[in-house]
């Protein structure tokens, strides 16, 4: 038999061991909980995906698209046939067209279509995935640039306006919203009755025809425009899309796409601002033909005013146009109109000159000129432009020749009675000659009243028939 003291000893040892084992088990339990939180079970992962799938897909898209498994520094199908890249464009607006800078500014949506099998992914629903601009830097995209562009930028409000859509079979849609300012080679020979043909050209910068083939995705329907597009000075007659090639001596042939649009200028603005004022100035210059030729200040001031006004119109048109080396249609019209205004001034100059020459000849023949202007008081306006109410005032304004005649009469008072009939005959002869001179010069004004309008109307008929 085992003594009772030994039983008690063994019992104490057993109790001590059991207490230590329980304490060790309590210490290990927290570690098990931490381990289970780091590595959840499959049921917990499935439940978490159902609760919030947005926290899982951003961590998986690189693996799903195999981005880390491929080098996207090279094009799809590198070493084989060129990759076809389809293009379509949705024009949002034509912001401005500048004649001085010879350029235009356009905002549009540029969409690229190509297939990259490296981005293919399995999908039971066959649905595509859409990404923003952050994925563009990690995959291959076509390097399209705009030929003859001056400025261009991608809109970035509120974020960069870039969209990337990847289909399960590897087809990719890449869309971007761009504003481009490009050159437009304009011809102003018919300005402002002109029609301008501008084009925006798209081309790959690095890949020639052996690596990349650009084409319009839907043919002629690849170029679409918004219905509300309108311009202040132009009417958009046509939008068209076509393709071609460009050759560079150092790199070879490249595919090039063209967005062509035809602009016809609205003429009504220039009719109001240029043509109509020019016609009014020409017609105003004709008013001088109805003013008496002896009213020198009136006719001279009217001619100078119309000439200066035409010069102002010419300078205003030239300031808003580029400095081209050829003659524009508006220049032809304004310069011919200025010529008519200038000829009206020359017409009065010729009339006044002929009158003066005939007066001098008559003065040499008769020795007197006062009788010629004693016809009526209005003829004195030929010298000072003022109207005189009496023959005495008329005689005083005729180069003071009456005063000389009076002094001669005072010195020969004794011969007045005998020479009075001769003096009367001379005065009557001078009056007849003066009437002939006035009638001849008035005939020039009469012919000008008819000739100037007929020639100007004929010019307008030829001008509008040629340029319209």
Q: Can you put this structure into words, describing what you see?
A:
Residues 67-266 form the Neurotransmitter-gated ion-channel ligand-binding domain. One of its GO terms (molecular function) is chloride channel activity. It holds the Pfam family Neur_chan_LBD. With 468 residues, the chain is of the alpha+beta class. 44% of the residues lie in helices and 23% in strands. The chain has helices spanning 4-38, 42-51, 57-64, 268-285, 296-319, 329-366, 381-384, 391-397, 401-411, 416-467, and strands at residues 83-98, 103-115, 129-131, 144-147, 149-154, 162-166, 171-183, 195-204, 212-216, 223-225, 234-248, 252-265. β6 and β7 form a beta hairpin. α4 (268-285) runs parallel beside α6 (329-366). The longest helix has 52 residues, at 416-467. The termini are far apart.
Number of strands: 12
Residue share in helix: 40-55%
Structural class: alpha+beta
Strand content: 15-25%
Number of helical elements: 10
- For the termini, the CA-CA separation is 138 Å
Shape: elongated
Low-confidence stretches: 26-39, 51-59, 370-405, 410-418
Biggest β-sheet, characterized? Answer: 8 strands, mixed
List the helices and strands and how they pair.
Layout: H1 4-38, H2 42-51, H3 57-64, E1 83-98, E2 103-115, E3 129-131, E4 144-147, E5 149-154, E6 162-166, E7 171-183, E8 195-204, E9 212-216, E10 223-225, E11 234-248, E12 252-265, H4 268-285, H5 296-319, H6 329-366, H7 381-384, H8 391-397, H9 401-411, H10 416-467
Parallel strand pairs: 1-9, 1-10
Antiparallel strand pairs: 1-2, 2-7, 3-6, 4-8, 5-7, 6-7, 8-12, 11-12
């Amino acid at each position: 038999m085992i003594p009772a003291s030994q039983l008690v000893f063994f019992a104490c040892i057993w109790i001590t061991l059991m207490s230590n084992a329980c304490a060790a088990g309590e210490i290990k339990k927290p570690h098990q909980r931490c381990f289970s939180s780091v590595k959840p079970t499959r049921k917990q992962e499935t439940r978490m995906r159902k609760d919030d799938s947005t926290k899982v897909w951003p961590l998986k898209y690189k693996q799903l698209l195999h981005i880390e498994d491929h080098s996207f520094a090279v094009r799809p199908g590198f070493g084989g046939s060129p990759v076809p890249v389809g293009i379509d464009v949705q024009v949002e607006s034509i912001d401005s067209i500048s004649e001085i800078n010879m350029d235009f500014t356009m905002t549009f949506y540029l969409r690229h279509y190509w297939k990259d099998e490296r981005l293919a992914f399995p999908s039971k629903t066959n649905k595509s995935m859409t990404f923003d601009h952050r994925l563009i830097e990690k995959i291959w995209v076509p390097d399209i640039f705009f030929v003859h562009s001056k400025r261009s930028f991608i809109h970035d409000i509120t974020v960069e306006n870039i969209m990337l859509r990847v289909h399960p079979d590897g087809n990719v849609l890449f869309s971007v919203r761009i504003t481009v300012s490009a050159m437009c080679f304009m011809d102003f020979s018919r300005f402002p009755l002109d029609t301008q043909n501008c084009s925006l050209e798209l081309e790959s910068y690095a890949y020639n025809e052996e690596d990349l083939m650009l084409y319009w995705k839907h043919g002629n329907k690849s170029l679409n425009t918004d219905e509300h597009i309108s311009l202040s000075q132009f009417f958009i007659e046509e939008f068209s899309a076509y393709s071609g090639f460009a050759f560079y001596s150092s790199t070879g042939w490249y595919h090039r796409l063209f967005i062509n649009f035809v602009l016809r200028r609205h003429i009504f603005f220039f009719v109001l601002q240029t043509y109509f004022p020019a016609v009014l100035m020409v017609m105003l210059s004709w008013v001088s033909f109805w003013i008496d030729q002896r009213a020198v200040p009136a006719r001279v001031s009217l001619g100078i005013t119309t000439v200066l006004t035409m010069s102002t119109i010419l300078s205003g048109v030239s300031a808003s146009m580029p400095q081209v080396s050829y003659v524009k249609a508006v220049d032809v019209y304004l310069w011919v109109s200025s010529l008519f205004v200038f000829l009206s001034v020359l017409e009065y100059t010729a009339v006044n000159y002929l009158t003066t020459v005939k007066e001098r000849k008559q003065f040499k023949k008769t020795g007197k000129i006062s009788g010629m202007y004693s016809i009526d008081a209005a003829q004195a306006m030929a010298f000072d432009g003022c109207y005189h109410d009496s023959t005495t005032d008329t005689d005083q304004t005729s180069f003071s020749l009456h005063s000389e005649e009076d002094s001669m009469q005072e010195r020969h008072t004794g011969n007045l009675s005998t020479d009075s009939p001769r003096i009367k005959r001379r005065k009557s002869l001078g009056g007849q000659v003066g009437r002939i001179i006035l009638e001849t010069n008035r005939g020039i004004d009469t012919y000008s009243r008819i000739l100037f309008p007929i020639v100007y109307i004929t010019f307008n008929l030829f001008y509008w028939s040629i340029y319209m």
